[in-house]
Amino acid sequence: MPDPSSTSFTSVLSSKKSVPVFGLLLLVLAGLALFEVRPDAPADWMLFFGRFHPLVVHLPIGFLLLGVLFAVASMRDEYKALGAAVPLTLWLSTLSALVACVVGFLLSTSGDYDPDALALHQWFGLGIAASSWLAYTLHAMGGAMLKNWLRPAYQITLAASMVFLALGGHFGGTLTHGSTYLTQYMPEPLRTIAGLPPREKSVDIVLTNIDEAVVFTDIIQPVLNGRCASCHNPSKNKGSLRLDTIEGIERGGESGAVVEAGFSGTSELYRRLILPADDEYRMPPDGRRPLTDAQIALIGWWIDEGAHFDAPVASLEVPDEIQTILTNLAEGGSTEPRPTGIFALDVPPADQAAMEALQALGVSALPLAEEVPFLQVDFLNAPDSLLSEQLAALQPLAQHITWLNLANKPLSDDDANVLATLPHLTRLHLEKTNITDATLQQLTNATYLEYLNVYGTDVSDAGLTHLETLDNLASIYAWQTQVTKEGAASLQAVLPTVQVNLGIEAFNPASTAETD
After folding, report:
1. Pairing between strand 499-501 and 364-367?
2. Looking at domain 352-515, which of 1.25.40.10, 3.80.10.10, 3.30.360.10, 2.60.40.1930 is its CATH number?
3. For the whole model, what pTM was predicted?
């Protein structure tokens, strides 16, 4: 007997009604993909709606994965009830996949994508819609009690939908991020197993002899590869422009030449780099890592000197500004911004065993960012009864702790002696603890400290005097303490950039002086 919850759903969305609608849409979309129907000049409305594709495309992925998960789980007696939700998830997957295909087709009319990868992405996307639709139809035909040929056909269709989903997602990533997106950071053992060549090292500008360096090959091309080629490559050539080859630069894009030799100001390649940050035509677009001033200056210089692809530095006129940049590169420098603060320090990675020991005591210890040796340590969910052991466990990680949250802990001045051993603190939460001015005295060597919260403690004006040597200190939160406006004004007289928040508003001694 069919599951009544399943039949009630199909009575609302009968396969007899949905099959023609979905089938017709699939045929139309397949025809558009097959015959590559592309307007030469797509209307603005097409590109506008097309840009919703990255948002919509995640819906069928979620619905389909959920449907397959429910279908597999419902094979077990204890999860059999989940089978009633399978038709709904498959129907929603089909519907959202069709919408994603439509807006994806509109986006493809821009002509910014590699046609081969685009075709594969489109066909696998259609495969997702078709397999979801077919699986829903088979389920609707057989109900919850699929029998005979329906069950294997249904199961094969669900398996095929997973294959289409994986391949469609892969080629979608290829269109957006390039053909090496998936394998770019693959570990060498996996690359060997997959039959891939060793990973190329990240491109950087390395000059051993300035005069002999070829300007484009040794200086300009690495910048374009690192900042521009992700959107202007064989798989994704925005504006029909490729910047990964000399031929592509010479050919230009859909608007014509991008380099006018001898005139950087009228060359699109340079002009778009110097537009205001909020300009929609600024390159790279918002959300992408911009070029540095040094990198932009080098590109402008190369264009002004004739945009030669084989000229050495010695053959060109080198202004003082460019000479400074080149000399820095020859001395092992970089066109990237130099790290500042703690990030300029040479600190080895944190000891994994020490991190695990701290975590075993209930303290969260996580890297501040990927490939960064510094840690953010949070006592929020750590048991108060183990505070002494937890603080002791900080010692092996003293060089690595930069964010520390001890808020709402029974922390005394004696316990806080540990702070004097943490030289790289930048953010420190001590709110609602039992500390006094003596604890702030432990921070006199915390020269990188930028943020301090002592809300709800017994800290006073006398404690603030211990912070007068901390030039990087920018924010202090001291409401519901014994700190007064006068004490805050005294500290800001020594550290003009610090803001002391006393609860109602950030205190600014200058505004107080105006009202006195």
Report:
1. unpaired
2. 3.80.10.10
3. 0.45
